[in-house]
Structures are given as C-alpha cells and as structure tokens.
Amino acid sequence: MRRLPDVRRWMGVGRSTHPDSYPAALAATHRAVIGDEPKLLLAFAAITHDPATVLAGLRAGAPGVPVIGCSTHGEIGPQGPTDGSVTVAAIGGPGFQASTAVATGVTDRQRDAGAEVAACAAAVADLPHRALVLLTDGLVREQEEILRGCYGTVGASVPLVGGAAADGWRMDGVFLLGEGQVHRDAVVAATIASEAPISVSVRHGWRAVGKPMIVTNSADGRVYTLDDRPALDLYLSRLSAPREAYTDPAAFTAFALPRPLGVQRRSGIEARNLSTEVDLAGRSIGGGTALSHGCLTWAMTGDTESILAATDTACQQALAGLGGREPVGMLTFSCAALRAVLGGDGVRRESERLAKWADGVPFAGFHTYGEIARVHGIDGFHNQSLVVMALS
Amino acid sequence: MTEPASLHIQQLVELLAVVSSFPDEASAVEGAVERSAQALEAEVAAVVFGDRVAASIGFPAGQVPEPDLVAVAHRRRDWLAVPGVGRCPATTAAWGGSHPGHLVLARWGDEGFSIEEQNLVRGMARLLELTLTMLRTLQAEHEMRERSDRHAAVNKRLVTELREHQRLLEHLFEIQRAISRREPLQQILDTITGAAHDLLRDDIVGLWLLDDGDPDRAWLRSVVGLDAAQARQHPPVPLTEAGAAGAAMLVDRPVAYTGEAHASPVIGQFAGGPVYASLAAPVHIGGTVKGALQIASRRPRRVFNDSDEQTLQAFAGHVSLALTDAATVTRMHLAFHDALTGLASRGLFLERLGEQLVRAQRSSAPVALLFLDLDRFKEVNDSLGHSVGDQVLMVTADRVRHALRADDLAARFGGDEFAVMLPGVGGPADALAVAERIIALMGDPMLVARQRLRVNASIGIALSVPGHTDTADLVRRADIAMYQAKRNGRGRAELFAPGMDETFSEAAGTIAS
Predict the structure, then answer these.
(1) Do A156 and B83 touch (CB under 8 A)?
(2) Is B97 left (phi over 0), alpha (psi -120 to 50) or beta?
(3) Which of A45, A134, A161, B31 is the least crowded, having the fewest Cβ atoms under 10 Å away?
C-alpha cells in the first residue's frame, strides 16, 4: 500500500472487482486508506454483493473507522465506470473530522428522519468548513421531505450532498450501510468537517422544448392531468412517442427515462424524472418527486454532448468553489437514468471527463436514483443531474 | 422561456395551491414560509406577528435570531447574518386586516431582491392574509359551534352567523380551486359574483372592469341580480357614473355610498327600481387598479358593517388573482402565436419542424412543408388600407386552418407569408392534395369591408429527405417552389424539383408577389 507522507488532509479511492464480497471490500479498503488517521469510509457496492459481508470486509480493512455506504446502479472511480465492484473512498488526516448517523423506518416520516440524521452535524468538531453527506433509499418516496427535515435542523449553515441508493434497476430493494449495520428504508449520513473549503456543485444537461404545460391535477408525487388532459397521453403526444409507449409500461419507462419534465425555478429549469411510476389505467405519471398543482412544466430533451457539457460545468464549478486551494479528492453522484441516454460509450466518456477535471486526485461515487445537492435556497433533491463535491 | 413576471404569477398560483390545502393557521404559516423561500430561492423565510416569530426556516434549530427577524419585519434593518452563509440582504412585506403580520425573506449574494421580486413578496403576503382570514374564520366557526352546541336553543343569531362563516369558507375554497385549475375566466368571475351575492344577500352584485381602450371608463363584466346579457352589452361609462365602484377605482380603497342619489345610473337602469346603498372594493392586476367589485341594495335601511367590507374585499382579492393569472396565460400564448391570426409564430413553427424532421428519420413517412404567399396582396394593402389587409390575413388563416388535419401545423411567417407543416405524409401526392384544397378554399371571394375580394395564393411544396434534418434547407426549397408557382401563373401549387435551384436566382428578382 502506498502511504502518504505526513499531510493534514487526504482522500484515497480503492476498488475491487472480486466477485466475492469480503475480499472485494477488504481489498478496496486497503487501497483507499492511503494515509494516517482515517476518519471516514464511503463505500459504493453493486447490488449483487452481500451487504453484511461487504460491511465485514470494510471493518476488517479499517477497524474502528466509521462507514457509510450503499448499493448502486454502477460505481464511479478513477479506473473508469464499473458494474459489480466495491468502490471505497476514504478520507483522513488531522484536518478532517467526521461523524455519522442513521435513521430507519423513513417511509411516512421522511421529515423526522432527515432531522434525526442532521443532528450528527452537531457531534463533529467545530472546524470552519462542513458538509452533510446523505445516502437515502432510492425507493422511498418524497425524498425532498428528508432534505427539508435536515434543513430544519442545520438551516443554511451546512451544504447537503449525496445520492439515493440504487439497485441496478431491479426496483425491489436497495441496501444502506451505517453505524455498523445494514439497512433498508433508511437514511445514512456523515458530517465531514474540514480545516479547508468543501465545495458542492450540481448541473444537468437538459433543455426545454416546445410550449409549457400546466399541471392541472397532482398529488402524492403523481401528475394526473396536464392542461386538463390525462398526463400520460399529453406528455407522450407532446414528444410524439411511439404507439407502444401508450400501452406497455416497460416501453413507456424506456421512452420517458431520457425525456424528463422541466420545472421553472428562479435560476433555471430543473429536471424531474416521471418515468418510473406509470399508471396505464389511470393515465397518470409519477416518479416519487413532486410537481406542484398549478406549476408550469416543459418536456425536455438532451443528448450525450449536452450531458457531458454539464459534467464539465459541474466539475469546474465545484473546483472553482475551493477558493484557489488544490483539491484532495472529489465525490460524484450521477443519475442512473443518464446511463440510458449516454450508453456504454457515453458513460466511459463521462468518467474520462471526471478524470480530466480530477487531474490526478482520486474521485469516487455512484449512479443514483436521485441526486442531493443543497447549496443555496432550501431545495436540494435533483433528478437526471450530476453532483460533484470537491474537498481541499 | 417564461419572463420573470409570469414566473412570479406562477409562483403565486403554486403558493395558493399549497396554503389553501392546510387545515389550520400554524401549518399554513409554515407551508407559506417554505414555499416562499423556495419560490425566491432564499435561504431564510419567516412569518412575524407583532414582535413574535411564528415560523422560520434557514437557521440551525435553537439558533433563530428572533430580534433580528422582527427588526427586518419592522424595516429597522435590511439584512440578516445567516450561519454558514454570512450577511444576506433581506426584504419584507406586511399585511393588514384584523391580524396583521409580516413575511420576511433573506438570500445569499450581494444583489438583494429586485423590484419584481419585492412585488412577488407583497403578493404572497396578501395571499397569506386572505388564507389566514379564512382559516381564522374556520377556527371561530369551530369555537362557535362548540358554544352553539351548548346554547343553540338560546342563540339563533349565533347559529346563523356560523352558517354564514361556513358558507364563506366553502365559497372561497371553491373559487381557489377554480383559479388553480384555470377554469375559463368568465366562469371564475361569475362564480365569485355569485358567491358574493349568496353570502352578502344584497340584491345586486356587479364586477366593473376598466375599459382597455379608455381607462377613464368602466363596464360590467359579471353581474348578479341584473339582466346579465343587457348589462354586459352596455357601453363603458365614465367612472363618475359608476357609483361607489367608480369611486373605489379612483381612490383605490373600499367605498360605501348610501342614498338613492349616489347610485350608478347604469345599475339603477337595469335594477328596475331605486338602489339605496352600495359598497365597492377595488380589484387589481399586478398591483394596478383594473376595476371594482360592487354590491348594491334596494333595501332603504341597508347599512354596511366591517364584516361586509372584509368579506367583499376577500372576494375582490380573489378577482384580482384570477385576472392576473388570466393575463399571464394570455401573454404566454401570445409569445408563441401570431397576434393577428392566432397561428403559430415563426419561432414555434421552426422548432416543431425541427423536431418532426428528426422524428421523420426514424420512419418512412416524410414531412411536407407548404410555403404559401398571397397573390397581389400588396395591391390590396395599398389600395384598401392596412385594416382591410389585416382582415384578408385573418380570413386566409381561417381557410388554411380549415384545410388541415389535427396533427398539421400552420404558421404566419410575417407579412403575407404562411407556412404549413404536414407530418407523416404518404408522398408528394398527399401534400399536393392539401395545397390544392387550400387553393380551392382561397378561390372563394372574401367578404371584407363590404367588398367581395378575390385573393389567391401561390404555394410551394418541399418534402423532407432521408438523412437531412436541416429546417432552413427545407424552407428554402419550399420557398423556391413557391416562386416557381408565381412564375407559372399564380394561384397554383408547385412541388420543388432539383432543377429549380438554378433558375431561381435569376427568376426570383423579376417576380413581384
């Protein structure tokens, strides 16, 4: 193992594609811990791994070091994109401090769960720069409420960053790791405090097309009507969808995944994924994120080039936010739906862009079911976006 | 995309949808705090009653600087220190009524809040006032119901009051639902005047709006208790003849008149008898007075009290919201459509054409573009004037529309040029058939300005080519074909053929449309 000389802050990333969970986690952890005083491990593992065994491997690789982690729809790291690996990011050194928290049974009490995990922000040493990293269960609805709960506790004092755990499109259960245990329907969080700046940026590569539609009936994360017509039909006709998308749920999801709806906000249009919860009988669409009754929405399109341009901007802004300091590493959370647009080659190119901006420093992350970045304002849950956190 | 003003109205409608869904005052205040912070992308939002912070967001739990928030609410300072963010510019808006309060917002950055944003904050405060008034009424109703259960037998008046409050609530919720569903404007306005009539029990309710062409005059847009058709057809009258409504528009606050002599002659004329008392409250679009909501009574002893005035103002506030929202929707429609003909604008048309060309690559059915230019339109314009020319363009738009299928799209490109997109045609013959249908319809004389005019059109047709998605090229080819149609004698359609490119440059210059 390469060990760093005596430095104040370091980040390392290790990965193993070993098919067995224990050796994979152990090897990835050994490769990630490149300095003294490791403070936190962030583990991103394919859904094919056994979570309890991954946890055992992480514990054996770095005894006593707090861990948060989750399952993915593909892991991101300097060696390129993978499906099936255990990828571990470790941070450490006397200039970093970390504390972790877990809230379980999140469904139906998202806001309270957010407030509970945010309390870990108070448990960490009072260093000048902080961020609250959140990993949520991507199959839980109303993720915004989790963030509202966090915001109610920490206010604007701490940026929120992270992603929703994924299960490789199986849609039947993710896993989360925190406080030495495996969880579902949970939020795991880590507050990272640092002597030096931490910077977060979020970007998407979509653009609105055509005229806006008005959300004329919505509730519980579902859109029932647009312009007083069944939402499913108007959305599909606005994008001239193939006939099978009107009748086959799988065809609908495949069509809608790369075509989010846009919501106008003061600083631009946000993308909302409504591809995953189609109701063919009720002709409504949904994806777990809310579109308010009365709001204007646009159909959106994008392509590999526009998404990669957003990757560049997100990296550039995150690094620029360090105020001239050199980065020690980056955490990246990229939407799983983008893989459908990018394809295998595009995902490789995305990874190459990340590596170019990282310029030799380690980076790690995963493809998510939702991206978290609250930097300004009170909102922070995103769809179809890339979130980059740079640590200096 | 949308201009800031329409984004702001949008945010008001979203706020309305949110706060009107809360069951009690405390949750409505918290919901409004979050929604207003979200709309303005502010880190901090708070509602302050007097010297008490009722709800806030943006500060770590237990560290809310209440004195600072109160100082901003009372305009003693215009910034807040926010942990993790630093010094943030702050803004505030107050509301009056029986329980006055303040909405406070603070946001990261040096810029502060623009005038438009400050207007939005004021609108949000006003909306909150309406909602809180409503919820307080509900609370009072609950309390009264408890009391009335105990004393129903001895207090009939209380029961009546209770029912009225209940009905006010029901009416206001119904109106809010209608606005947020964007039901037709006339229907919403009639709902409001109907509700005011039902609740205030006066003989007549009238909604006056200022005349677009002459803001010193007003007309009746919606009435109850009068013959609606007659009243709405009555020409606009000077504000001095609109009674209490005219005065309310002039002074921008509620006005009550008593005595037959003060009544509006228009109301008197349609009421079929003397009107003794009237009360009016102004309505606004985007903060500017645009009309007034008036109730009028034929009972000689009718006296209006504070409760009547508050109820009327609540309804007037909802009229303002409905009018402002409708104006925004109209503006948005205009941005994408030609104002004269209602056809798609050039920009919208080209965007749709681009999408169809990309889509055509995946199917075997090409997209056809028809480029239509009126023959000798300039002569019509020069000899009969622009207003006749405009009518000719409107008739042309109607006829073109009539010749198309639901999926086809027509646009006015400017002047007397029109374009039509036919997606998924079987081949050139299909496109030619549509063009000939249009020419046949155009062949009928137009009755314009009491004259029978014959204005025909020349149409150029071009079809998309596999592997090419360039809209400009397709438009260019249809344009060349149109010139060929002019050259071949006008009033006809021509399909683009490759040879036309070469002859175009020398020929085009010699043809006058």
Answers:
(1) yes
(2) left
(3) B31
